[in-house]
Amino acid sequence: MELRVGNLIELEVERETPLGFSLTNGEESILLHSNEVNGEVTVGETVKVFLYTDQKGRLSATMHMPKGYQSHDWVEVIEVVRNLGVFIDIGLSKDALIPAEDLPVFESLWPKEGSLLFCRIKTDRRGMLLGKLATHDVMLDKSVAAPKEILNKNIQGTIYRLLKVGSYIFTNEGYVGFIHHSERKEEPRLGDIVEGRIIDVKRDGTINVSLLPRKQEALDEDSQVILDYMETRNGTMPYSDKSAPEDITERFHMSKAAFKRALGRLMKEGKVYQKEGWTYRKTE
């Protein structure tokens, strides 16, 4: 077989060298560096190796199989390069690239360093190692059906697909879920780990997930947002339950209805009071 990047091939160990071992297919030779040896190697035997280009662009062999070569695997993003793509750790001294054209259009939604992506490893015509993100069908094949009794339970998982209408998540349990854009405050990045709750279990075993807090949790959060803002203004603010909805949304990033609920709670608890369109923090 031809010595070409991306090939998994059996080669004969022809001799030991200062750097490792020289391997041959009978016509060409290639270096198996000592760092790439897995187990015992003796001259004259045949070893199975993966071929790749090292950091200096030389064709090299390794006995370590790269993650994602024979089947999809979770790989870690180790570098993000603007306009180029993201590099992923596949267990070799050389990293693979997921090119920009295979990532979200907006770089603000690209995965961050440390994010995990589910990929296969392939090579292009130039012999470059590339990561190919798993398709939705692949994730469905890998998934397990969610039972009905987990409805309303908390869930954690990794974002693996972004659409205009929402995001797809693969949970720690192996469920495939969908997060509609109305069920989140902001769009997660590809590869983000998010936590939410299950709001529907569908007939096919997939789930719908919300990243929004439950009503009581939202009320607690909104009340704290108001108090935190008032703290920055010495306990006062020029907003009340009579303020314009657009002013509330711009300042607090919540609806007028949510603001009124949170403010009403704070007044009922005796923490704030209103006067002439302003709200004041009560002092002890």
Automatic annotation (TrEMBL):
Alphabetized SUPFAM superfamilies for the sequence:
Nucleic acid-binding proteins
**Which residue range or ranges hold the S1 motif domain?**
152-212
| Regions annotated as coiled coil | none
Xref: Pfam families: CvfB_1st, CvfB_2nd, S1_2, WHD_CvfB
Q: Which InterPro entries match?
A: CvfB_fam (IPR014464), CvfB_S1_2nd (IPR048588), CvfB_S1_3rd (IPR048587), CvfB_S1_st (IPR039566), CvfB_WH (IPR040764), NA-bd_OB-fold (IPR012340), S1_domain (IPR003029), WH-like_DNA-bd_sf (IPR036388)
One GO molecular-function entry:
nucleic acid binding
Give the family per the record: Belongs to the CvfB family.
> What protein name is recorded for this chain?
S1 motif domain-containing protein
Name its species: Sutcliffiella cohnii
